[in-house]
């Protein structure tokens, strides 16, 4: 199935944007008979089409014509072989094409035919190619043309060239190394292992593996007269130092990107900046490297060029530095970096624990952004905070360990801190953040306009001290998962606003959560303790509940939560040292049935009962399928007597292990009542009793229980279990199928 010749193609004449997404029936996107009807098409996006092999069919076009296409985006087309399926002088002109983006097309070997590049891509301004693992060249060579291309300017208008994750890419055009880029401003080459930025001295020019032939050009500026952003890796820098270029040959570069220093033994290349002056550099990005520090305590021997380099720097970006422990901005010799630094961005630096280890002054800093730095415990000290007099925007995102933004110091040292210019403040997905500041320091925010707090579940207040802020400040919590509009507070004290947001987020989470690990959400423990009432319809959607290391709880499910957990299917309780019972049922006023299917109890040393009551109308667990109990050394019995009276009829698997004081599985009636029911577990198929040295019986008064569906019985290290009947004794009955599978005294 595809485009039909019988379709009313004239309707496409006014089409300006075409998106082809997930069309698995297509192998050709724009067939020849449709091409001429798309003369007004300006944007084409093709993505997620597993069988597309060609985008444009340009075979046998009798007369040349021009298309108005301005943007071409190709993404996740794993079988794409060609964008244009023929290299012909009659190929349609794409003289209006300005942007081309190709991503995740692993089968394509080249992008453009040579005939298209020669005068038909004169408007192309941005070319971005990423994750095309089979790409060998950007422009394909036409073997039918003698000598190939000779024009050194193939892309006269190109301003941005990004070549990312292209392991097979060897060249722009085979055999032509003296290309010129008259308007190129941004050149970023990343993880293109076979494409070298510079040729080495004496390199064979028949090879295609370099982008710039430094032996054929007078200076770097001839090739890139307008280049402002350049990415370099460790190999590039080594070659530049070997070739002894003039010291200021990068004087036009304003944005330098350093990538792929995977061997951290050499450290950050400060020596490069001493020998190769980059006097106009305003931005520095360091990424995908194993540096442990950017600026070390070791002061460079010569600092004249370093001073020049530092004096213009306005922005530092640190991204994907898995071993970075210190930026080193507190080092005294790095002071020139801070003199004009206006923006600092840190992202994906998991070992970084703070911004600076000691006092540093950021007197010109206007923006500070931190994202996904999981090692951060706090961001800055109070002394550093006082230097941020010009800070206008602060954002902290997905830093799972951060507990406060401004660290708490000695109470005697706490004083006023004023953020004179701070206007916007964003906190997002900070699971352990308790407050902006945990001490009693006074904060002044005279210019603050917006505070956004989203998914900071432990943040109950903004700060413990006095807060002076404009009454017009808006405090927002964008709850995209639960509602379309954010919760906003305006004209309130910051602490009051944060408390309202905390309560709102807690209620929304309680209403909508299906899976909960209480150990990772200690803010919910107030609901368990009854300090905060259960929100309306709170916990009613919860399906799985895990309590791990909740040492303040005495009951896993207190009585006031029982009616709310009507949808609970799985309960796991582990390592809760203060827990004495799982279900606090008490005298239930009305019968209640749980949907619980699996119950897992492990390492609960003080648990004496699973159920702490045995009322006649006790809660029913008719859906319970599996029970696993291990390491509960204070437990005497597992089920109260009433639980075995038709309330465990679905139980299929029961495993009990390492419970040193367990005497019986089912407790006897305390009131003297008795039962004559011989089938207490009608659906049980697996029973495993392992290392229960005090276990004497299943039920203290019944020795003739029947097990109609039991298939596997495991008893191991249960020395006092003398009245559990084994096959062949008169008071034990088991069906024939089960008897043949019985494993006597087998370890688990």
Question: What does it look like?
Answer:
The chain is of the alpha/beta class and 748 residues long. Among the domains are: 1-227, Leucine-rich repeat, LRR (right-handed beta-alpha superhelix) (Alpha-Beta Horseshoe); 514-741, Leucine-rich repeat, LRR (right-handed beta-alpha superhelix), CATH 3.80.10. 11% of the residues lie in helices and 25% in strands. The chain contains 11 helices and 45 strands. It has an 18-stranded mixed β-sheet. An 8-stranded parallel β-sheet has the order 31-32-34-36-38-40-42-44, with no helix packed on it. A 3-stranded parallel β-sheet has the order 2-4-6. The longest helix has 19 residues, at 494-512. It is globular. Residues 479-486 and 725-748 have low confidence and may be disordered.
> What summary fits the major beta sheet?
18 strands, mixed
User: At the first level of CATH, what is the class of one domain?
Assistant: Alpha Beta
Query: What is the architecture of one domain at the second tier of CATH?
Result: Alpha-Beta Horseshoe
On the 0-100 scale, what is the average pLDDT? Answer: 82
Question: In terms of structural class, how would the helical and strand content be classed?
Answer: alpha/beta
Helix content: 10-25%
- Tally of strands: 45
Span of the ends, CA to CA: 58 Å
Count of alpha and pi helical runs: 11
Q: Specify Rg, calculated over alpha carbons.
A: 36 Å
Give me a quick take on this structure.
The protein has 748 residues and is of the alpha/beta class. Among the domains are: 227 residues, Leucine-rich repeat, LRR (right-handed beta-alpha superhelix), CATH 3.80.10; 228 residues, Leucine-rich repeat, LRR (right-handed beta-alpha superhelix) (Alpha-Beta Horseshoe), CATH 3.80.10. The chain has an 18-stranded mixed β-sheet. An 8-stranded parallel β-sheet has the order 31-32-34-36-38-40-42-44, with no helix packed on it. A 3-stranded parallel β-sheet has the order 2-4-6.
